[in-house]
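Note to self: user wants both folds in one dump. Writing first protein now.
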Amino acid sequence: MAERPAQPTFDDLGATTRDVTASGVRLRVVERGNGPKLVLLHSLFVDHSTWNAVAEELASDYCVITPDLPGYGESEKPAPSRFAYDVNAFTSAIADLYAALSLGRAAVVGHGLGGAIALTLAARHPELVSELVVVDALAEGAEPWLYGRLAHLPIAGSLVFKQLLGRSSFRAFFRQLFLGDGSAASDQRLDKYYESFNTPAARGSVLATLRATVDTRPVAAQTSRIQTRTLVLWGHKDRLLPVSVGQRLAREIRGARFELLDAGHAPQEERPRELADAVRRFLREAR
């Protein structure tokens, strides 16, 4: 596995930032703190920095590892002919990242798409996951939304995601669907996500991911296999994946705990301290 140094960004001040090759793709990886290993996996339209506030809260007790998934943030954005952008491909990349970083077993927290990856990792590689926390995970099909529907149209989807989805539309989409309180994220923060999204390669990665993850049945089919101690966290104002999805998921995983947070689809953006406290309590009980 090849590594090369990378310059930290302003948002990652005080963290260790490097690039690691996993599944043949260069991944940007940010680490904070010392202690037991804790891996945080992000969702669509964002990157590792969605976890920054949570990671800073947890870094006093854990070595917190926040990678950019293939196709996102500062990670390489391979063409779909090289990387499938489905949950299986992402899961294989994270399993390979474990090997590249010599993590052994580590706790995993995943949000949205990252939650689907975390669920699949725990089902397929229980030897890697010591504890599992999923946050508003993509365990069932999301509620229909305009850009999601357009993404699956061969011509219109490519046109929207590669050319027409602009800054103001991106802000409105994020506030309406990701947040329970639209004012919880500043324009500056949303613009950072937009700039990361606003390149041909990045837009292509998002489009490929949306198309490759529309069928969530393979994720749901594996949940009953999970033996790892699990916490399911959900924003009670989630407009994309209703609370009922999280409740069903918690019932399907043996012994899983379920907790609600006062947030929308992205609690790490709205309630980072509360989310970090819930994760910390859960992990401490296991030790």
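First done. Writing the second protein, which came from a different request thread.
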Amino acid sequence: LIIGETGTGKEILASGIHAAGRYNLRSPLVKINCSAIPSELLESELFGHENGAFTGAVSQKIGKFELAENGTILLDEIGEMDLRIQAKLLRVLEEREFERVGGNRLIPLKARIIASTNKNLQVQCQQGTFRPDLYYRLCTFEVYIPPLRERREDIPLLISHFMSRAGLKMQFSSKAMSLLLNYDWPGNVRQLRNMIYALDILNDKKVIEEEDIRNI
């Protein structure tokens, strides 16, 4: 279970965990954003469905759990998942098997599960919007990614990384760097990355000054 604010790099960390795992290079990493899919469709997306399982199901559909066979499935923003789907997911995790919607054949679960969220799941458990049994099943190993404001010493390294990836040659004056180091970065690493790219688009200077950053 990966926990962190929006923009801290949860998906990147999940990709790194997958890449470092005991799988070959062809093992799939399947990602699904639980907040982007309506709850009435999420079950079908996860587990698949059979032809005629519901109105509009005109053919068989393979779900994400099957597509992730021998690899990893990332359940992004799992805190947004409907309670009914949470109950089914818990059963899948406990029994290591599932059925397609409208099906009666048990399919073994052969994928590693990584879940991520920007929510406080313990608070959601207290509020009744997240199942405590599912939470404790997911947090077998929990990773917390601190927000950028709690690790300001990483900002120069991240700036260097983003510029290197994009082939940028900018430099920052001492006042400009001080401004970046003292900003709270509510959008975290994603916001910092986007600002670097914006500075490159809006300026042709070799040295970025404080006012250049304030104008973004």
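Dump finished. Worth passing along: The chain has a mean pLDDT of 92.
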